[in-house]
Design a protein that fits this description.
Length: about 475
């Protein structure tokens, strides 16, 4: 079929586009304000991109419009539709669906060749764990399909069908990042209810997405809905240290459940993040030696081993594969060194993610200075819901610089407990100037945002040269 994707440059919708193209469908799409890496990936696949959401795109006459959750019924102050193409689709009564629903019906559950879906859910670590799991299955010779909300460096692409789909093989593994955000403006269920996994990873769970969820209990309810879709022959891999996930399971779990954690669970770790033993039910089953930083990634590795075992990959083989894991673009990604100053890019945008990312870098660089440059860009952070947690999240940074453009709350007041260890910049150029004024050889500048951050990484490297 011919599908036209609205919001095609989002990491998820771009992945759907790549899978649809590989499956033999004709794919076109539109978006606005695009930035790499997804725009680069789509262009490399030969998928035509149209800027904006103009009504003239009805002339493409696709079999189905696939609508990303960036699209809404919102209007400007002047009363004009922000997404006129969507309004025209509704007025004309044309065929449309959401990205997750199209994916579930046309890729994950094709007649006669439904996949063994391994879904990775959680507030943090979804992208990294999905990439780890896909790589472990690849190293084991399973050639999985996958869709990741980023670009795993081991693969160089965010999505592929895998050998099972090409060979029309039923129950071939497909690894997917399972987001709890809502599906579309017309489907307010979490995206992950469309995937129907046989193996579900619940990495962690805390409050996020304040723009669509009232409280943590509302998100726990959505995770419970996910558990309802896992068959009795399936496996739920959960973080046993998280009280929120214990509550989710207490609501009902009809599948095998196995826990992992630092304090509790069937799967545990012994040793530092770069070289540790994996224990399953108190028995040593594997040793992981790798270059990935942070305790949070040790937990991601535990979840990966427990999930991979469910499709027949022995823990010791999975651990060997993790030694070759290269992580994901924008996960403590080294963007360059100028005048002895190293600049990193990271996707962290929630206080807990910021804290764990800085902790991971601190473990790598020891006593060297860390300058954390961040922007509160997610909907939750823009609302100011978690501003009080920012000083806690930045504790291990020697200096924090917040890009405050577009906020309607005071970053200066929020960071006041940090004293002189925090600065605020109204523009990205001002943030670059502030870093350049204080950075010295041996420093590590960590840039954190879930957007393109205005190309700050290249600007910093240029200013420091």
């Amino acid at each position: 079929m011919h599908i036209h994707i609205l919001g095609i440059c989002g990491t998820f919708m771009g992945g759907v586009a790549a899978l649809a193209r590989e499956a033999g469908h004709r794919v076109t799409g539109c978006d606005s304000g695009v930035y790499p890496p997804m725009s680069d990936q789509l262009q490399a696949l030969g998928i035509g991109l149209i800027e904006g959401y103009g009504v003239d795109q009805l002339g493409l006459k696709p079999d189905c419009f696939v609508v990303g959750n960036v699209v809404s019924r919102a209007r400007t102050a002047e009363g004009q539709a922000r997404y006129p193409l969507m309004e025209a689709i509704l007025d004309a009564g044309l065929n449309y669906t959401s990205g997750p629903q199209w994916l579930g019906e046309h890729i994950l559950r094709r007649p006669g060749q439904a996949s063994h879906v391994l879904a990775v859910a959680g507030t943090h670590g979804k992208t990294t764990t999905t990439s780890m799991l896909a790589w472990v299955l690849q190293a084991a010779g399973l050639e999985p399909g996958f869709l990741v909300g980023g670009v795993p460096l081991n693969f160089g692409t965010s999505a592929r069908l895998g050998a099972g789909a090409r060979q029309a093989q039923a129950q071939a593994p497909f690894v997917i990042e399972a987001d709890e955000y809502d599906t579309a403006f017309f489907d307010k269920r979490s995206k992950f209810v469309h995937y129907r996994p046989r193996t579900a990873i619940l990495n962690n769970l805390e409050f996020d997405h304040a723009d669509i969820f009232d409280d943590l209990a509302a998100i726990e309810k959505q995770f419970h809905h996910l558990l309802r879709t896992v068959p009795s022959s399936g496996r739920v891999v959960y973080n046993a240290d998280e009280a929120s996930l214990q509550r989710v399971l207490a609501r009902g779990c009809w599948s095998q459940a196995t826990g992992f954690g630092l304090q509790q669970g069937d799967w545990r770790i012994e040793g530092p993040p770069d070289d540790f033993e994996v224990l399953h039910q108190q028995r040593r089953v594997a040793r992981v030696r790798w270059s990935v930083a942070g305790v949070h990634n040790q937990l991601n590795a535990l979840a990966t081993l427990a999930a991979a075992e469910h499709v027949g990959v022995r823990p010791e083989l999975a651990a060997e594969a993790l030694a070759e894991f290269q992580n994901v673009r924008r996960r403590l990604e080294n963007r360059g060194v100028a005048r002895g100053v190293t600049v990193y890019d990271d996707f962290a945008h929630h206080p807990t993610a910021i804290r764990t990312t800085i902790d991971g870098l601190r473990r790598q660089v020891g006593a060297a200075r860390i300058i954390a440059v961040f922007e509160p860009r997610s909907n939750t952070m823009k609302l100011g819901t978690m501003k009080a947690q920012l000083p806690w999240s930045l504790e291990q940074a020697d200096l924090a610089i917040c890009h405050s453009g577009g906020l309607d709350w005071s970053a200066t007041e929020a960071l006041a407990p940090m004293g002189t260890r925090a600065q605020v910049a109204a523009t990205i150029d001002e943030a670059v100037r502030q870093v350049a004024a204080v950075a010295r050889s041996g420093d590590h500048v960590l840039c954190m945002s879930n957007g393109g951050f205005g190309g700050i990484h290249d600007k910093l490297l240029a200013a420091l040269s």
